[in-house]
Design a protein that fits this description.
Helices cover about 35% and strands about 20% of the residues. With about 375 residues, the protein is of the alpha/beta class. The chain folds into two domains: about 5-40 and about 280-365, Glycerate kinase, domain 1 (Rossmann fold), CATH 3.40.50; about 50-265, Alpha-Beta Complex (Glycerate kinase, domain 2). The relative contact order is 0.15. The chain has a six-stranded mixed beta sheet, sandwiched between helices. The chain has helices spanning about 15-30, 50-55, 100, 115-130, 150-155, 170-175, 205-210, 220-235, 245-260, 265-270, 275-280, 300-310, 340, 345-350, 350-365; strands spanning about 5, 35-40, 60-70, 75-80, 90-95, 135, 155-160, 180, 190-195, 260-265, 285-290, 315-325, 335. Helix 1 packs across helix 15. One of its GO terms (molecular function) is glycerate kinase activity. InterPro entries: Glyc_kinase_flavodox-like_fold (IPR018193), Glycerate_kinase (IPR004381), Glycerate_kinase_RE-like (IPR018197), Glycerate_kinase_sf (IPR036129). Pfam families: Gly_kinase (PF02595). This is Glycerate kinase. Keywords: Kinase, Transferase.
């Protein structure tokens, strides 16, 4: 009997990691009916982080919360409560930025006004519940507010020259003259999951690299926000050059100021969901993501899973929405592109579950 561990990331914007795993299993089973499946949907701190924990950790519980979303309207969402453990006797809260302050919550980009208040409000809800530990995924940010919205929700005050709180979002950054952290909530153990290693400022910083994705339309806008973040870092006494503090529009840096520890997202998620134990006696490990390209080897879920599989003596396989010409698939015993199977990118995007089932069947045939 073939033991298959299914550990894909989400196919961003089209299908969750958990549903991708289900589709891959169905496809494999159509070829190998005796196979045993272990579902360990993965994430790296971005979209699907909460879902990955929910699928893998027995006894986890959704905790509903309504927050101020990045579009300026309330968002009904939830954070995840994991059961107590010896090192977290009051449980662990998993909160992701994507479902509270994420770019996918916007109908149109709001580069100056979107902020991270909702993320902070969800964290406050978890703190009020009394959890021992926070696990925070900070991918898919909608803003470049330096994490000021999040810190403000936790009790910080960002004041102009007259001592008045500044506007939310990147719009308010230029007017910050003083920061008051006196009422900031104390932090428990805080693990911050991200696959981004960018500094806060400079040519590889939050505004220059990620600002255009969030609507900063030209170099003038990016330079303005970068200058504002330089000033914010000085007020917060944050080293703007630290790797990862530019993640999520500077939210990584704000969390470091609060007391959080930045960690590689895929590795941390894998540890917390017991992935190594699941893979230990696997024959095959299937992973994947929406686009497997030249950057996928840099700490992303597929490359990380492939290394774990090889170390455990299992065959690593890849299913991806597309596999680009510049990607390195040499770590994988077999790979399948949904775009190739469907005949076009549009067809694959329209029916991801159908083509993931086809990919699962193709990978199973390759294993015979």
């Amino acid at each position: 009997m073939t033991r298959v561990v299914l550990a894909p990331d989400s196919f961003k914007g089209t299908i969750t990691a958990a549903d991708a795993a289900i589709a891959l299993a169905a496809g494999w089973a159509s070829v190998d009916q005796g196979a045993e499946f272990v579902h360990r949907p993965m994430a790296d701190g971005g979209e699907g982080t909460v879902a990955a924990f929910e699928a893998a950790v027995s006894g986890s519980r959704r905790m509903p919360v309504t927050v101020d979303g990045p579009a300026g309207v309330p968002v009904d969402t939830f954070w995840l409560l994991l059961p107590p453990t010896d090192d977290a006797p009051n449980g662990t809260a998993v909160v992701d930025l994507g479902s509270t302050s994420g770019i996918e919550l916007l109908d149109e980009l709001r580069p100056w006004d979107a902020d991270t208040s909702g993320f902070g409000q969800a964290i406050v809800a978890a703190l009020d519940h009394g959890v021992s530990r926070l696990v925070l995924g900070i991918g898919s940010s909608a803003s470049t507010d330096g994490g000021t919205g999040m810190l403000a929700a936790l009790g910080a005050r960002f004041l102009d020259v007259e001592g008045v709180p500044v506007a939310r979002g990147a719009r308010g950054l230029a007017h910050i003259a003083a920061v008051d952290l006196g009422a900031l909530r104390p932090a428990p153990e805080v693990r911050v999951l991200t696959d981004v290693t960018n500094p806060l400022t400079g040519p590889r910083g939050a505004a220059a690299v990620f600002g255009p994705q969030k609507g900063l339309v030209d170099e003038v806008d990016s330079a303005r926000v970068d200058d504002d973040l330089v000033r914010l870092a000085a007020l917060l006494e944050l080293d703007a050059a630290l790797p990862g503090v530019g993640a999520a529009g500077g939210t990584g840096g704000a969390l470091v100021v609060w007391g959080g520890v930045l960690a590689p997202g895929a590795a941390e998620v894998a540890e917390l969901i017991g992935l190594a134990a699941a893979i230990a006696d696997a024959d095959v490990v299937i992973t994947g993501e929406g686009s497997y390209d030249g950057q996928s080897g840099d700490g992303k879920v597929p490359s990380f899973l492939a290394s774990l599989a090889v170390d455990a003596g299992a065959r690593a396989m890849l299913a991806a929405g597309r596999i680009t010409a510049d990607s390195d698939t040499s770590l994988f015993a077999a790979s399948a592109s949904l775009t190739d199977l469907a005949g076009s990118s549009a067809a694959a995007l329209a029916e991801p579950a159908q083509w993931l089932r086809a990919a699962g069947a193709a990978l199973a045939r390759s294993a015979r």
